[in-house]
Write a structure and sequence with these properties.
about 350 residues, mainly beta, Neuraminidase, 28 strands
Length: about 350
């Protein structure tokens, strides 16, 4: 079910208005290319030149690098900020409820960029009559809504878009959960034209009260060949759409503070697959734990788990308080996208070892 409009979306007689506060020409930082498969990685090369720009730190919500653009989804204000490959704000989109929607609450959950600079947004609405609507919105850089796809009772909490523009979401069906029906799939591939295409990862494989509200440390990333999900249950899930192959591993987080948060996340799909993160947390004496250090998931045959290990080249040197990574935003082909202590955007490729430590299906 899809409806087209200029800037207004409608469902059941209700409407949402998307407005563009600031717009400009959009061009991805670099053309997307096919991913190759070198050996596995463990250290980071700092030879890449930084971009001659500084990220505007006055940003709220989720920050990620998506298909050549930086995305900030601000659920509190139902808005999405779009930035070019230099971190410059080039589009700001806000969902405003019209005057006929008194009593309706709008929820913006996540957003990602398509390679042409348009946006895919997962959102929902609680209507005044108590009903809920869930949908995917496709909007261009000027705020014009291109299409709306209803997803029924399935609430897509997170999404990512592959380099060939396939849309993947991870979410739950609260109505099914309340009815005790956990047989539905949580990972889903949607087409904005035809609806559901493919799905995987049964809700029944999570404990009853685990997933829905543990989203602080949840991250999702797409590559040309795989979809990766880091669940809030400290589990890495990797799915290969072409073959339907699904891999799942428990993650040991003992190297992190008790109340840690993954504040940056990236997935490099070469070879066996490589997962990176930056962490925020405090030690027992109140100090920042692991500031500026990049971590990679490494597989251990001893306990059949993945472990977060610090990446050489990013650990703070002796006498220094911070490492080399101020914020990790994601990946661009086989490079990590981040900014360093001087707030300069950088693209750097990990240096690959000959022995793999990462696990993948």
């Amino acid at each position: 079910m899809r409806s087209k409009a200029m800037n207004r979306l409608s469902w059941n007689g209700k409407s949402i208005l998307f407005t563009s506060i600031l717009a400009g020409s959009l061009s991805p930082l670099a053309a997307q290319s096919a991913l190759v498969a070198p050996p596995a990685a463990s250290t980071l090369s700092m030879t890449e030149q930084p971009q001659p720009a500084v990220i505007d730190r006055d940003m709220t919500g989720i920050t990620r690098y998506s298909n050549g653009y930086f995305i900030n989804a601000d659920p509190r204000n139902a808005g999405v900020h779009l930035r070019d490959g230099f971190g410059k704000l080039i589009g700001q989109f806000t969902a405003n409820l019209g005057p006929s929607e008194t009593g309706t609450t709008f929820f913006l959950r996540d957003a990602a960029a398509i390679t042409d600079g348009t946006l895919v947004i997962t959102a929902g609405a609680a209507l005044a009559n108590g009903a809920y609507e869930n949908f995917l919105v496709h909007a261009d850089q000027n705020g014009k809504v291109l299409s709306l796809l209803r997803t029924g009772t399935y609430s897509a909490q997170h999404l990512c878009v592959t380099p060939d523009n396939a849309i993947w979401t991870f979410g739950h069906d609260e109505q099914s959960d309340e009815a005790g029906n956990f047989s539905y799939d949580m990972l889903r591939n949607y087409s904005l034209n035809s609806g559901l295409v493919q799905s995987a990862v049964k809700r029944s494989t999570f404990t009853r009260h685990t997933f829905a509200y543990q989203t602080v440390n949840f991250h999702m990333a797409c590559s040309a060949t795989r979809v990766g999900v880091y669940a809030g249950t400290n589990e890495w899930i990797q799915y290969t759409p072409a073959t339907g192959r699904l891999g799942r591993w428990k993650v040991d987080t003992s190297t992190f503070p008790r109340n840690f948060m993954l504040v940056g996340f990236a997935y490099l799909p070469m070879g066996a697959g490589h997962v990176y993160a930056t962490v925020q947390g405090r030690t027992q004496d109140g100090r920042d734990a692991n500031p500026g250090t990049l971590f990679e998931l490494a597989y251990s045959q001893a306990d059949d788990k993945l472990h977060w290990e610090p990446v050489a080249g990013t650990i703070p040197p002796a006498g220094k308080e911070y490492g080399t990574i101020a914020q990790l935003y994601g990946s661009d082909d086989n490079k990590l996208v981040y900014d360093g202590p001087m707030r300069q955007l950088r693209w750097a490729q990990p240096v690959f070892r000959t022995t793999t430590t990462a696990a993948a299906p």
